[in-house]
Design brief:
16% strand, 43% helix, magnesium, 3-stranded antiparallel β-sheet, 20 helices, 11-stranded mixed β-sheet, alpha+beta
């Protein structure tokens, strides 16, 4: 078992790209601070220190894109049956949203879902630039990125070693793909966007969409849930070496104190039977910022107006309070969720298991998590607690009295209970499934299904460059409109550039006290409407400076995979 522990902790180690992501979010937030209160930050398992990176799946980065518009706590209308879901009474506070209120009173959730300009005057342009689907060439293979709707935001999935294959392709389609890959194999990085390659790939996509011989294989459960309106949508099977993802989640910050956090604080501090978290952590959590994100309720959703609480900062504080052995127990739960319980991973997510773990952490003496003796006893207590929750069909949100599994069916309860009991009976064998699964997949390519809609998005992206330039220009134009005068935009650029140089290089810099002069962004378009030139007057430094670009870092997968390229 100790070898399992070591492997999990190796997969959990920070990589340089983790730090880079946080730095780049800091740069972006610094830039945005010149115009308002918009922010972005890395949240989730990467920041909490519980991320698992295997050679087949590097996990994901979660980016919280925070609006400069705050929602007063008095404008929140809780669902009585599921209080962690709320509707926002737009008629109860002053705002500048141009959208009509639903039923004359509720703020539409699509403001967040679409990263609307009314709420994200600065971040909106950057979001659209960073989420353009694209195909690029690695050292040996193709890389593809697709956008997929996630319930609280958008997920961009990155596939390395991307191939469209399988019996669902006709011979003509396979031939065209072979031609494409052959050409890319002889193509340098500089000419990857040549017109010939673009035409072939666009032709491949177009023929795939219209090809009557393309089969319709069975979809994964999570795919069918997100495409209920197109149950017969055609798909292609693809193979890949490994994948990673980036989740972009737009959020409104809450202005005011939530009653549920006061109640949680009293429960923790007034009990002499609670071992964890510390009183200091409790105070920090109660002072931390809370958000609402656009997410439909798990029962009887009102998709157009449903929002859900996000206690992201509180969860990061909780994670920072874990000992190394407690964190190892979390990793064991994640390994089980991704391995032995993989069939049910969309029903009981890592968030559900983390919640159950936190509830039991309160009651378990930290000594029971000792990896050298009793950690499996602590793991069993968490697993048994989840069985109890399933039997009652009630798993309480850690911070608010709200049921996280109200949507689960009796059949699902029975199946999952049975699997968890098998884990308790033989945890070694159950954990081995995760490690064996990774070893098996390392020796061969993985396979998934991609919808024709997602493939069509690649066609629209025109291989990255042609579509990215006008979006960047649009973003800069929005910034100019937002700035009351040119000096504000210039100051934002200069201040952020100084920050980048100070942190990314060893070059000593001294900031000038002389006010910077405004710059003009000159956009010249050709007859096709595509930008030919973006001229920005700028000071030339005496020493060449080439810190990594924002975009380069954001799009870097960042992991410990060595199959093809070092991504960290």
């Amino acid at each position: 078992m100790s070898s399992f522990y070591k492997t999990l902790e190796d997969q959990n180690k920070d990589v340089p790209n983790d730090v880079r992501q946080r730095r780049y979010c800091k740069y972006i937030t610094n830039f945005a601070s010149h115009f308002g209160k918009e922010k972005c930050m890395v949240v989730g398992s990467t920041t909490e220190g519980t991320r698992l990176r295997s050679n087949i799946n590097e996990g994901d980065f979660d980016y919280l894109i925070i609006s400069g518009v705050s929602i007063p706590v008095d404008a929140l209308e809780h669902r009585e049956d599921l209080p962690c879901f709320v509707h926002i009474r737009g008629d109860k506070f002053q705002h500048s949203f141009s959208h009509n209120l639903v039923d004359g009173k509720y703020l539409p959730s699509r403001i967040l879902k679409e990263v609307d300009r009314d709420a994200f005057k600065i971040m909106r342009g950057l979001f659209h630039v960073l989420t353009i689907p694209r195909v690029t060439k690695g050292r040996q293979t193709l890389h593809a990125e697709f956008n997929r709707d996630a319930k609280p935001g958008m997920c961009t999935e990155h596939y390395a070693g991307f191939e469209v294959v399988g019996d669902d392709l006709t011979q003509s389609m396979k031939s065209r793909l072979t031609d494409l890959l052959s050409m890319l194999g002889e193509t340098t990085q500089n000419d990857i966007f040549s017109s010939t390659i673009v035409q072939i790939f666009v032709g491949l996509i177009a023929s795939s969409v219209g090809d009557p011989e393309c089969s319709q294989p069975k979809r994964r459960k999570q795919d069918t849930e997100s495409t209920d309106d197109t149950p017969n949508e055609k798909v292609c099977r693809v193979k890949f070496n490994y994948k990673s993802s980036k989740d972009f989640i737009a959020a409104f910050p809450i202005d005011g104190k939530l009653k549920c956090l006061d109640e949680w604080k009293r429960r923790i501090l007034n009990s002499d039977k609670i071992f964890w978290p510390s009183s200091e952590a409790v105070d920090k959590i109660c002072q931390s910022e809370v958000y609402v994100v656009a997410k439909p309720a798990i029962v009887d959703p009102c998709t157009g107006i449903d929002f859900c609480f996000g206690f992201n900062q509180a969860e990061m504080i909780l994670a920072s309070c874990l000992s190394s052995d407690q964190r190892l127990c979390v990793l064991l739960l994640k390994a089980l969720q991704k391995g032995y319980l993989k069939k049910f991973s969309s029903i009981l997510t890592t968030f559900h298991w983390k919640t159950a773990f936190y509830h039991k952490c309160e009651q378990i003496d930290s000594g029971l998590f000792d990896r050298h003796s009793t950690i499996l006893n602590a793991l069993e207590k968490v697993l048994s607690y989840m069985i109890d929750c399933l039997q009652r069909k009630y798993l309480k949100h850690y911070f608010i009295e709200s049921n996280l599994i109200a949507h689960i069916t009796e059949t699902e309860v029975n199946e999952i209970q049975g699997k968890i009991k098998e884990i308790i009976a033989d945890p070694d064998a159950a954990l081995k499934v995760y490690f064996d699964m990774n070893k098996e997949c390392e020796s061969s390519k993985q396979e998934e299904e991609i919808s024709m809609k997602e493939m069509e998005e690649l066609k629209k992206c025109k291989f990255d460059t042609a579509n990215r330039i006008p979006k960047v220009v649009s973003m800069m134009s929005d910034l100019q409109k937002e700035a009351s005068d040119g000096s504000k935009l210039t100051q934002a650029i200069v201040d952020t550039l100084y920050m980048v140089i100070e942190e990314e290089t060893d070059i000593p810099l001294k900031r000038s006290d002389t006010p910077v002069k405004p710059v003009d962004f000159i956009v010249e378009e050709n007859s096709s409407g595509i930008c030919d030139q973006l001229a920005v007057p700028f000071t030339v430094f005496p020493t060449p400076i080439q810190p990594p670009s924002y975009e380069q870092a954001i799009f870097s997968s960042g992991g410990n995979n060595s199959q093809e390229e070092q991504k960290y």
